[in-house]
């Protein structure tokens, strides 16, 4: 695609990352992450949340944390909820609760998805 001068939309990249996570195609997902960096899509909230989710589904929470930490100015409710859910889906409930508390401290008001993720974590503890 890119060789022909056609670049994917951010929604396409987010879907590809999701597919990589679901298909356990970690190396392909990392390659897609490299393209995202190269093409300058890093500040897109949906791609950033897809990267966090991809790395968490792939059981690479250190990489998910690096993506989250690299977003200095763009941490909105979508990003925070992806990060919160990432810890919960990896059975790291204490860390997830810490993220939830930090979300409040940062002035981000959780949405329904944030509370759903938090409630699910509480039920599985």
TrEMBL record:
Alphabetical keyword list: Repeat
Pfam families registered for this protein in UniProt: PPR_2 (PF13041)
Domain of life from the UniProt record: Eukaryota
Organism: Trapa incisa
GO molecular function (one): RNA binding
Protein name per its UniProtKB record: Pentatricopeptide repeat-containing protein
Stretches forming PPR repeats: 76-110
InterPro entries given in the database record: PPR_At4g14850-like_plant, PPR_rpt, TPR-like_helical_dom_sf
GO biological process, one term: RNA modification
Cross-referenced PANTHER family: PENTATRICOPEPTIDE REPEAT-CONTAINING PROTEIN
